[in-house]
Amino acid sequence: MKFILFLFLTFELFASSLHLATTANPSRLNPLLATDSSSSEIAGFIFNGLVKYDKDASTIIGDLATDFFYEDNKTLIFKLNPHAAWHDGVKLSAIDVVFTYETLMSPQVVSPYSANFRFVQNVEAVDDLTVKVTYKEPYFKALETWMMGILPFHILKDEKNLMNSSFNTNPVGTGAYKLYQLEHSKNIILVANETYFEGKPKIDKIYFHVIADPMTRFLMLKSNALDIGSIEPMEYERQLNKKFFTTFNIYEEISYSYTYLGFNLRLDKFKNPKVRQALSLAINRDELVKVLFFEHAKVCTGPFLPRTNAYNSDVKAPIQNINEAKRLLKEAGYDENNPFTFEIATSNSTPIRPYAAEILQHQLKLAGVVVTLKVMEWQAFLNMVVFPKKFDTVLLGWGLSPTPDPYMFWHSDSDKKGGFNLVGYKNPIMDKMIEESQSIVDKEKLNGMWKEMFKIIVEDNPYLFLYIPTSITTVNKNIKNVEPSLSGIWHNYIKWEKDEIK
Q: For a disulfide at 342, which of 62, 173, 390, 392, Cβ 3.0-4.6 Å?
């Protein structure tokens, strides 16, 4: 017993650890159900998909699949890695892939990710290590959808209610790290998977400290209690001393995300397009970027991001025009005696958004619009405002993949429980275009359709597209082998090493 204790203490002494912060408790560490950023981030260390993006987010490469190819334009074959295994030692099998698909598409599971698989006709285990996916028709995102994390059949085959399963807080995956401890509002600890098929990660443990308050996160980063963290532009420009820059490397890159103010289009007050146009003209997006980000951001001009093939550079952001905004509001029946009023709901999970809401409130006041604010803790915001769709407007953001799928956000069918069409946007022309685009494999033709969708959505004003933030990531210099790329820093994290001894 003493010898075992000695080995444990020796491991703890020499084990390397990575300390990170997460803004909220993860709701479900299950890739089929992880829709909030905290759950998705942590689940990404625990689970693998069949494929993934390379470090530049430009090419799809194998993950659990060592090989993949199209047998024809509607049939996709995956060859699984024979060395991949679940954290409990059971070998990965094609049956796990079939089970994951059937579970995601079952009526008992509510997940926005099921929309990605709507064109799948059949998923078949040809043998233990071969999966055959047959599509109803060609689908431009057929490969990317299989980045979805795979679930273990042998553990969940008899699960009656995955939505409330204990698996969601005690997951077993194939990933580089295993869940060791989950303490809500305290710490989530992951330990390295010693039998990981790509090799054991060099860093033994990852600690996620649940810290809702952004200032506390910042102070912990400055005091070296965190190894990696995101910092806000104001912190970067005004609140860091020379010592910080000798301790941390800074990596800055435009993010694959944008922030928007979304109108609840189910409400009569937002159904008038003149009102939405007026509100768009009343705000100054450049001012948001300058005041909030010290230029560490770009104005967002629409639903698809720069660096993607769907981006339409011909569409420009509206220039603030208070007089025109007042005129349109007057045509809609609003004036000084009957001002247009609404509430902006947002979360304090990021320090920028409450300030953004205050600036929007001030800008809209110049056009005679009366805005009230509701700022909430992240989980309460999701559960009481976003998911039940009980809001006038929401100030939120989307993180997007390099290949956009307009169906998830802009098709009327996605206005449902668990869907990402939160604002209830419905445009029959858009629905038809999205449906037609999904089976187009000609990249040039598809790019042209996306650009036209971009233009239509912006003209409809279901959102006020606001800004695309720059991601400013700080990494302690004692972490070695970090290779920044277009996709960020995390693509090779299993090769990272940490100099200091714990």
A: 392
3-state helix, strand, coil in the chain (%, to 5): 35, 25, 40
206 contact partners, CB below 8 Å, separation of at least 6 = 17, 18, 20, 45, 177, 189, 190
Give me the domains of the chain, ranges plus CATH numbers.
257-470 (3.10.105.10)
Determine the Cα–Cα distance for residues 137 and 134; give it in Å rounded to an integer.
9
Inter-CA distances, 284 with 35, 280, 356, 364, 467, Å = 31, 9, 11, 9, 11
Asked whether the beta carbons of 438 and 411 are under 8 A apart, the reply is no
Tens digit of pLDDT for each residue in 68-84?
999 998 999 999 999 99
Q: pLDDT at position 500, please?
A: 60
The predicted model scores a pTM of: 0.76
Which amino acid appears at position 130 of this protein? T
DSSP state of 268: G
Q: What phi, psi does 185 have (nearest 5°)?
A: 65, 10
Measured distance CA(469)–CA(487) in Å, rounded: 15
What mean pLDDT do residues 28-50 have?
94
